[in-house]
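In the lab's daily routine, each protein ends up as an entry in a very long ledger. A line of letters takes care of the sequence, but it says nothing directly about the fold. The three-dimensional part falls to structure tokens, numbers that each stand for a local backbone shape. The outcome of that step, for a single protein, is printed below.
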Amino acid sequence: MDNRFKWIVSVVCGAAATFYQQYGLLIVFVCIAIVFDSVTGVIKAKTTGEGLSSKKGWKGFWKKIALLVGLLFGIYLDYVVPLLFFKAGLTLDIDLPFALIICCYIVLNECISIAENLYLINPDIMPKWIANLLKVAKDKIEDNTQ
């Protein structure tokens, strides 16, 4: 086997392992939340009689893609901001949590949506106080983001 090929594979695998160790769990949490929200959304549409529409499905798909792009942007910021500080001759003594903050925001919003979907599918699935608490949290998030 060509030594250049071995070197390239080693560098790519090493970079992927380093990246996965730092950000892999965040990406997994976001992807799991997105899948659960999508599945409960489809079940809700079927059980409540809303039906599945292609237009709504595509809109939801692109929203989920935007969430993943947002997380990737957070990961990018985690790398680029310290680099810019370094290039400017400044030191940054903390690890920047952009990706973690964005991940928490996405997972929280997806969990609220999952709970709402489950409540609409069958109100007996979760206690009313949890549904009310999640609604209040969602309202507060929406008030702060607009």
